[in-house]
Write a structure and sequence with these properties.
By secondary structure, this protein is of the alpha+beta class. The protein is built from nine helices and 24 strands.
């Protein structure tokens, strides 16, 4: 037996009529990783024949070309493999390492730090190989390999040394690949549903808030008339300044998760030993974090949707809205980083090391157009709540499908190598 081959037994779950032990080889036994081309930015055009595929375009299971750079002419020294073919398997080697997808568009060019897996041995099914690397196990292994640098990077050796578990026949490979492909299709469909619901909410928010220079929203519930008045946010929020009562759990504030238990969210507590000066947050209160986070360079604004009191860092500002419905509307409005940045940019001063300098009073000093009628607030909030419930349910289905795939893979492949 080849010294590269390791006998690893059989999986827990197997399709009928397949028998015999599996073996382990390396991805590099079947595919060679080929790097992309270093395109010059001065060659880019707004609309060109060729789309340059960068690491940001490689999503798990999906090639996203919505924001591709383009060129009109191929460089004279571009390699043959850097002009991608439909069906090619590519992998991100920098940043969000380990993401893979199949090229499904013509005239795509391979940029540097995106790798092409070029098949050098046809004794393995391509669809089976793709099902192995389009997985949490592969991405996790690549992330681990890329740790230790300011920006994660993975090498050609790291990718080519990834273990490939092989059943005795290509027929069994194709059965497994077909099964996992069907699950991937369900995951993609569910992901698209969740994304469509989120986009629906974004579009709705653009219509139920008056546009700049206007005082009446484009979309309104029947029975409500008149302009929305422009008033300082302090008209709708007040700071109760209550400190910790010593009984509440420390919470963090997240873009995606909202107000969430710090240990649950971060894995451990980062709170000070003495939390007596932490701010108490009541149900429906609004929190302004005053810390840059991703696409929110001036901080994030979230409502405490937990039905109980929590405490947060004393660096955060906490306000009670005039109604829980108005608080929900503000939470939804400030989900959009454009809305948040537009509101905060003129109020915030950036200090040393990108620190945010803004007083709690300054935060609520700027004017906004909001519905002052409590019944209109309720109608709008209940509409947004219903959409959020659907989004939450859709994401839960997506998470369940991903968990099902992960559990299935643990049974379809030999256990001691998972």
């Amino acid at each position: 037996m080849d010294s590269k081959i390791k006998n690893i037994g059989s999986p827990q779950l197997r399709f009928p009529s397949f028998h015999g032990d599996w073996v382990e080889k390396k991805l590099g036994d079947f595919f060679e990783l080929r790097n992309g081309y270093a395109f010059k930015s001065d060659s880019y055009v707004e609309r060109g024949k060729y789309k340059i595929i960068t690491i940001s375009n490689v999503q798990n299971g999906k090639l996203d070309i919505s924001n591709c750079k383009c060129i009109d002419q191929l460089p004279s020294n571009i390699a043959k493999h850097q002009l991608l073919n439909i069906g090619d398997i590519i992998v991100s080697m920098t940043g969000n390492v380990g993401r893979v997808c199949i090229v499904d568009k013509p005239n795509c060019l391979l940029n540097q730090r995106v790798g092409l897996l070029e098949q050098i041995d046809n004794s393995i099914s391509r669809s089976y190989l793709y099902s192995l690397i389009n997985s949490a196990q592969f991405e996790s292994a690549m992330i681990k390999s890329g740790q230790g640098a300011a920006q994660a990077n993975i090498s050609k050796d790291s990718i080519e040394s990834f273990p490939i578990l092989l059943p005795p026949t290509i027929g069994e490979e194709e059965k497994i690949a077909s099964c996992l492909t069907e699950i991937d299709k369900m995951i993609t469909s569910q992901s698209q549903e969740a994304e469509a619901l989120a986009n629906h909410k974004k579009g709705l928010l653009q219509q139920i808030f008056p546009r700049s220079g206007e005082s009446i929203p484009r979309l309104r519930f029947p029975g409500f008339n008149g302009a929305w008045e422009e008033k300082p946010l302090s008209h709708f929020l007040y700071e109760h300044k209550t400190k910790s009562d010593g009984k509440c759990e420390v919470h963090s504030v997240s873009v995606a998760k909202g107000v969430i238990n710090q240990v649950e969210y971060l894995g451990r507590s980062f709170a000070a030993a003495d939390t007596s000066k932490y701010n108490l947050v009541k149900p429906n209160d609004i929190i302004y974090t005053k810390s840059p986070t991703g696409s929110f360079p001036y901080g994030i604004i979230k409502q405490n949707k937990n039905p109980y009191n929590v405490i947060v860092s004393p660096l955060y500002a906490v306000y009670t809205p005039v109604s829980k419905y108005l608080g929900y509307i503000l939470d939804s409005y400030f989900e959009n980083p454009v809305n948040t940045n537009n509101y905060l940019s003129s109020l915030v001063q950036k200090g040393a090391k990108n620190t945010i300098q803004i007083s709690n009073d300054t935060f609520v000093s700027k004017s906004m157009r909001l519905p002052s009628d409590p019944e209109e607030q309720k109608k709008i909030a209940e509409c947004l709540m219903a959409i959020d419930d659907n989004i939450t349910a859709s994401i839960a289905k997506l998470d369940a499908l991903k968990a099902h795939k992960k559990g299935l893979m643990q049974q379809l492949f030999p256990q001691d190598n998972q």
